[in-house]
Amino acid sequence: MNDTKTMIKNALILFTITLVAGVLLGVVYQITKDPIAYQEKLAQDKANQSVFALADTFDDAALDEAAALSASSEFAGVSIESVKKAMDSSGNTLGYVIQVKSKGYGDFITYTVGITNEGNINGISIISIAETPGLGMNADKVIVPQFADKAATEFTVAKSGQLSDPASQIEAISGATITSRAVTNGVNAAVSYFENVLKGGQ
Asked: Given a cut of 90, is residue 17 above it in pLDDT?
């Protein structure tokens, strides 16, 4: 009988602890939800402005899901998350900011790609990355600058020290080819979407 009472007592104690922990987690989530969303929006706004410094506002553009899926399917591990119009102070569309997510070596890399109406890449800006420190985490320093002010075309990755065509090749981070290809594939998907959906202000 004592064993049964002990088991019931222990079960009630465990239930109470679980219940309290669940309630506390729910409270913490509610408290942190808005600040986290706010910080994510700030990061996205900063990334948008980084690839379109001359834009005054960024307006949501309808995402053609079929075209986004088609562009993503050409390049493994890539998805097109959203598209925004980069607008000047007069309301003219300067180009587009395409947010992309690519599967890197460690996790997904999220970044924006800015493409002008004329088909030039203003640049890319990383929103989140969790690659290997000292290797893939160098993407911001090594890969990002290589895309600035290039014609929007399909890019390939060249091994470190073997770059022969800077117009269409991206030099890989030494020791982090997977990360380099992940970012490049995402840019290629964004370019494909731009060419098939957005070019000419369609």
From this structure: no
